[in-house]
Write a structure and sequence with these properties.
This protein has 13 helices and no strands. The protein has helices at 11-30, 35-50, 57-81, 85-101, 107-130, 132-152, 158-161, 173-197, 204-212, 217-244, 248-264, 270-286, 290-338. The protein is globular and about 75 Å long. The N and C termini lie far apart (47 Å). The longest helix has 49 residues, at 290-338. The protein is an all-alpha fold. 80% of the residues lie in helices and 0% in strands. α2 packs antiparallel against α3 (57-81), α2 (35-50) packs parallel to α6 (132-152) and α10 packs antiparallel against α13 (290-338).
Length: 339
Amino acid sequence: MFKYQWTNFDPKLGLYNALGVLLVLNLAEQFEAAWVAAGIGALLAWITVLLGQARSWRGELVGLLVYLVGGAFFSYLAHAVAPTETLRLGVMFLVTFLGMMLMTKGMHAFMVAWCLVYWFLLSPLFSSGMGLAETVNGHLIGVGVVILLHLAKRLWWRPVIGEAAEEPELPAFRFAVVYSAVVALTMVIGLGIGARTLRADPTLIANSAFNIISPSASQTWKNAFERMLFGTAGICCGFYLGVLFPGALAGQLVIGVSSFLALALLRVSFGPMVGTLFIMISYQWGTMEPEAGHAIANEKIIAELVGVVLAGVAITTLSMLRQLRHRLTANSKTDTEVN
């Protein structure tokens, strides 16, 4: 069912990322920044480069700078609208819709927008618990380190991504509008359900749906199954590593190894990469009090399932409506020709 390009496994890039993450964490500690925000900010910055298929190194740099500034702005905006649920959901819809519409501008613009939407979703989770200034500082440090690495070692990325791939045909404007609206509505529904049912992290359902949804129904369901398989395995593995090895040194080792595998596997398949990230995330749950840690881990698994089902149903419904429209259009043309 799944085809993995193991020849794309890149240990050099993985090691480079692990060293960068450790640098980010140490800088975050020194500058009173949220280390989680710094780590997520750095990962998303890498994604704009590695999956964005920019036409040039300068284009990659511009994308990083847009993400740096845009992410900081979205941190303030998301924090401002977070206390009012209706306002937050409305702005979430608008941000997601406009971000997804950038698919009409090419893959690089779309991936930068995707990362900004994702950051807008997660940022209030960090700022509500760690402070807005610490969250913004974390974002700036995480992305800033990636920009510095990009400037210093620009040749390191080329062996990984190769020459810029030929830009696929841009989607029709009408399809982009409908698809963007579906994704935005899915995010709003997921966030709304999460706010009413989840205690630890109300973004989990929307997070899961946003990560696997795609224009293709079959690809979305494939992504959903893969995310549940590797995600659940990663949660269980990380959680019990935290239970068995709760020390600070073990935590640093888990973060380092997970960071290494995440980028080394990025171009092999998204599923294994997600699994390694979940190991890093769930490790801290295992170090908590047993009851609290189990509750959070179980909530995460259930929310993942709800999110992938929500995304799958949304895109399948869209696909069915498109097929129905095509049939009706074809029948109408046939009737016109007969008459």
